[in-house]
Specification:
It catalyses: guanine + H2O + H(+) = xanthine + NH4(+). By secondary structure, the chain is an alpha/beta fold. It has helices spanning 45-51, 104-117, 122-138, 152-165, 189-206, 227-239, 259-268, 275-281, 299-308, 316-319, 331-336, 355-372, 382-396, 436-446, and strands at residues 2-10, 18-27, 33-37, 71-72, 77-81, 83-89, 141-147, 168-172, 174-175, 213-219, 250-255, 289-293, 311-314, 341-343, 414-418, 452-457, 460-463. Strands 6, 7, 8, 9, 10, 11, 12, 13 and 14 form a nine-stranded parallel beta sheet that branches. Strand 16 (452-457) and strand 17 (460-463) form a beta hairpin. Helix 3 runs parallel beside helix 4, helix 4 (152-165) runs parallel beside helix 5 (189-206) and helix 5 runs parallel beside helix 6 (227-239). The chain is globular and about 70 Å long. The structure holds xanthine. Xanthine (XAN) binds at residues 89, 104, 108, 112, 220-221, 254, 257, 318, 323-324, 346, 349.
Length: 464
């Protein structure tokens, strides 16, 4: 068991931040939040733990905590839910931000495919993936939805590393059997589907109860997939539905990302009216689908996505820099339709591995979109981007009942923030008279990973 006493900050509802002061939070050994007790005087904590039968030598060893082990937080510290990165290319870790200004298909050909091709070597994969996962945990990313490379063995390695380091993750082998160099594409649909099934089986054997890991079907996008491959993946998605998992496997792809990408998709699939019709035809748009970007989706497409229940991974950094659409996505239009939205670093199209940067850039991009839409699509607020980075992302990844907030019964995926650690180079600046809301605002707007002192996934300390 673990216990904290101090401030908790989370966002159960879009647009709202809940600040719980002087709160006792207890985490059971199974990683679940056992108690959240607001307004407890510090001096009363041992008494309360005793009254709840949580201290001392219980027969049930699981349910005991030594009062001396309670972490009492300072005024500048608070516990918040861990960040959920809904769109991340693990094999692009070493090329973040490279190829600035290139349009998507040129960026893939010149920078990305040669780089990802190196993951044919599992030793290389282990070296890069170990660093990637460590670095994202360092940034407070407790859940990531990862695209692997096209290689089955390297993708297995990525899943192994997430489990070893304790990161919650959706992991998928990238499916791509055309429009990529011979040195970096699946030979044909049959091979791609076989490798997919093998990775899925590997992940199920590593983590049979899906405690931390899930497989996510990962057609890169329609341009690099033959119709046969898209159909095969849709069939796997349909077969994965069961009584225990009525929504089936998660699916992720890039969607309405850039004008160059959309023109090429139309040329390859002229029979479809738009990308919603295309991906829906192959059974790839379900309530478990995570669509990255959606910068250019029309109102009509958004209405249909809303009905299908798909989620959006909003990647504000890459959208405005490399590979993406050079366009701010219409996030307010997604939210107005009740479409689940999370934030993605889109590392390495996105140059930053920080979800704080993603939140800040989401604010900036939404302001640009507000101006562009002549005020129709209102800019986002700090409570809204924080919600997207935590609970919104959890919903997009199908984890809304497990993580995203600090509520009793949820698993303890969390960060311990110190908004003003006395350390050289730290940019945040908290003053005596600051309210807790201001302390939080300063962290979101000026903080970085040096403000994230501890990171927990399922109650396990994964960064300190
Ligand atoms: N479309 C993409 N967009 C992106 O940002 N990164 C990628 O690797 C990719 N592949 C297709």
């Amino acid at each position: 068991m673990r216990a904290f006493h101090g401030t908790l900050i989370h966002s159960p509802k879009l647009g709202e931040i809940e600040i719980l002061e002087d709160t006792l939070l207890v985490v059971a050994d199974n990683g679940r939040i056992e108690a959240v007790e607001p307004r407890v005087d510090r001096g009363k904590v041992p008494e309360l733990l005793q009254a709840r039968g949580m201290t001392g030598n219980q027969n049930d060893g699981e349910k005991s905590i030594d009062v001396a082990d309670v972490q009492y937080l300072e005024r500048t510290q608070f516990v918040a839910p861990g960040f959920v990165d809904t769109h991340n290319h693990a094999p692009q870790w070493g090329m973040r931000g490279m190829g600035q200004g290139l349009h998507i298909l040129d960026w893939l050909d010149r920078i990305t495919f040669p780089h990802e091709a190196r993951f044919a070597d599992p030793v290389h994969a282990r070296r890069i993936y170990a660093r990637c996962v460590t670095a994202f945990l360092q940034q407070g990313v407790t859940t990531a939805s990862y695209y692997g490379s096209r290689h089955a063995e390297a993708t297995d390695v990525l899943a192994d590393i997430c489990l070893e380091q304790g990161q919650r993750a959706l992991v998928g082998k990238c499916n791509m059997d055309r429009n990529a160099p011979d040195t970096y594409r699946d030979t044909d649909a049959a091979e791609s589907l076989r490798d997919t099934e093998a990775c899925l089986a590997h992940i199920r054997s590593l983590d049979p109860d899906g405690r931390l890991l899930q497989y996510v079907l990962t057609p890169r996008f329609a341009i690099t997939c033959t119709p046969e491959l898209l159909r095969g993946l849709g069939d796997i998605a349909a077969r994965s539905k069961s009584e225990a998992q009525p929504r089936g496997l998660a699916i992720q792809t890039h969607f309405n990302e850039a004008e160059q990408e959309m023109a090429s998709t139309r040329a390859l699939f002229p029979e479809f009216r738009d990308e919603v019709e295309l991906y829906a035809h192959f059974g790839l748009l379900t309530p478990r689908t995570i669509l990255a970007h959606c910068c250019y989706a029309t109102d009509d497409e958004l209405d249909r996505l809303g009905l299908l229940g798909c989620g959006v991974a909003h990647c504000p950094v890459s959208n405005m820099t490399v590979g993406g659409g050079f366009m701010a996505a219409p996030v307010r239009a997604f939210l107005d339709r009740g479409i689940p939205v999370g934030l993605g670093t889109d590392s390495g199209g996105g140059f930053s591995s920080s979800m704080l940067d993603a939140m800040r850039q989401a604010l900036v991009a939404s302001n640009a979109r507000e101006v562009q839409s002549k005020g129709e699509l209102k800019g986002l607020t700090i409570p809204e981007v924080f919600h997207l980075a935590t609970m919104g992302g959890a919903r997009v990844c199908g984890l809304q009942d497990k993580v995203g907030t600090l509520e009793v019964g949820k698993e303890f995926d969390a960060i311990l923030v110190n908004a003003d650690p006395v350390r050289p180079g730290v940019m945040t600046m908290v003053e005596e008279e600051d309210s807790l809301a201001t302390v939080f605002e300063k962290f979101v707007m000026t903080g970085d990973d040096r403000n994230i002192e501890q990171v927990f996934v399922r109650g396990r300390l994964v960064k300190s």
